[in-house]
Amino acid sequence: MILAQGLNLQWGITGMVNFGVAGFYAIGAYTGGILSTRVGLPPELAIVLAAAGAGVVGLIVSLLTMRLREDYFAIVTLGFGEIVRLLALNEDWLTEGPRGLKISVRPFDFGLTNASYALVYLGAVAFTILIIYVICERIRSSPYGRVLRAIREDDVVASVLGKNIVRFRVQVFAIGSIFMGLAGALFAHYVQNISPDTFMPMIAIFIWMSVIVGGYGNNRGLLLGAGIVMVILEGSRFLGDFVSFVNSQQLASIRIILIGCILMVVLRFKPRGLIPEPKFSSPFERTPD
Amino acid sequence: MQASTSGQPLAQQIQGRPLATHRPRLVLRARQLRKSFGGIRAVSDMSITLREGSITGLIGPNGAGKSTLFHLLSGVIVPDAGHVELFGVDVTALPPHERARRGLVRSFQLAREFGALTVLENLLLAPQAQCGERLLPLFFRPARVTAEERQVYARAREVLDLARLTPLRNEYAVNLSGGQKKLLELGRALMTGCPVILLDEPGAGVNPALMGLLTDMIRRLNSEFRKTFLIIEHDMDLVARLCDPVIVMTDGRHLAEGSFETVRKDPEVIRAYLGGGAVADV
In angstroms, what separates the C-alpha of A283 from chain B's closest C-alpha? Predict the structure, then answer.
């Protein structure tokens, strides 16, 4: 969901196509893991630094690619995601390569049992989602968000009207990257073991689906969208208990098919997502007419 | 942010611009502009000056390079050679948003409204350097952002009234008619506070009823708000009523300049318009 929030800011509101979601996710996960386990920083600090690190990388990537047209930009981000994954796979000394990086420390650990720890962690993640939601809503509904949507609609006109579109795009891309890195670090410290194959480009596709199903440009809608995609993705694991005639491999494929079908149905009947972008109404309006 | 609820302070804001040393003041000057696309020279050695407070017309046959000239003046494309000066400052190397900061805004040949934004939002967006468009004030000075937004809103309501778009203000701009979009673009240009406005065919696709409103609005912006206009237009009626002087362009060059009456009798201009049919009709 945090990933979806980051992507919505970049694509849903500003129109920047980022297929490299997995890359920023991975950077956050690995940076967080390495800082807490190898360097020995407190894991909470490691998570924050990981988010910042992903933000800095996002800043650099967007500065380098800002002159590219939309579609080429999308390809670069896809390539970027793969570069990160392959680096993680091959730079053994840093990331343990395909064996995966073990993370031995736990954040928010007050000597709890595993079950209650999971609850605490869930709470922490939910709180993070809430904070990011508030930030995203503030951005979306402000003059800042208005410029972002204008850039999405027609960047040349936005520029002619005096908006520095490069500044807005770079900022937004960096902020989105911070959220993605944060998500990665939180994920890494929860599963405690990350390997490069966790960060396949497929992740980006799932996140994209979440934003599309939920409704682009809408922070509430995408939470719903991400919820739906996650429920299908994770929930359908248990489907095997009820349907005995498919084996586990078939089941894995069925889950993907299911998500694809839902995406198509939603796009057919609600082309702008389940909860479309809200229409602007000025807080200063007094007399409706 | 000098947003206000009346037109008067807006005009003062414009007068506060840096003064050139000579009179009549030149707000915009382009020298020897040149731009080629592949083998086609769209604009070649074109020079143009805009006097403050004028409504200058820019006419010429299709393909004369008028729109390209607009792109060059507004910074949407970069010239191969030549210079553009705005209020005496060389802006040739500056991107469009920097030129807007310095007082130049333009419209496009086909109305380019922000379709998924409401009419009101299209206007609210336009004022320059709003503090709510920067991240730090947005999160740490919310009261200031709200106060500014209130001022911008009040101004937008006036512009809506001026363009007779008030009842449509909460519609998505994409749903407006062609003529209403042109009015919206004009209103948006006014909202930027820029003293120099370039209009690319404001009359194209506007029905006769709205045409009167549109010409009135241009005239009011010129007289009350002291806006300087450069207008590309094929509707000779509109040019005759609004524009003085009129500049004629052909083959990317400056052909003639003067009052509408003078240029329409110019034999070279008549020849440029393929035997003069178009001009003789007027």
Answer: 9
Strand-pair partners of A243: none
Query: Looking at the domain assignment, is residue A14 inside a domain?
Result: yes
| Residue-number span of the structural domain to which A264 is assigned | 201-277
Same domain, A227 and A116: no
Superfamily of domain B10-14+21-274: P-loop containing nucleotide triphosphate hydrolases (3.40.50.300)
Task: Decide if B171 touches A, using CB distance below 8 A.
Answer: no
pLDDT tens digits, A78-115:
888 888 888 888 777 777 767 777 777 777 766 667 77
How far is the alpha carbon of B207 from chain A, nearest alpha carbon, in Å? 24
Is it the case that residue A273 has pLDDT exceeding 80? no
Strand B228-232 relative to strand B196-200, pairing? parallel
Number of folded domains that form chain A:
2
Using the beta-carbon criterion (under 8 Å), do A162 and B128 form an inter-chain contact?
yes
Query: How many CB atoms lie under 10 A from the CB of residue A131?
Result: 11
Distance of residue A219 Cα from the nearest chain B Cα, in angstroms: 17
Q: How far is CA A113 from the centre of its chain?
A: 30
Mutate to test the interface with B, among A139, A161, A216 (most CBs of B within 10 A): A161
* Residue for token pair 């008549």: B270
Residue A279 and residue B105: Cβ atoms within 8 Å?
no
A288 occurs within a structural domain: no
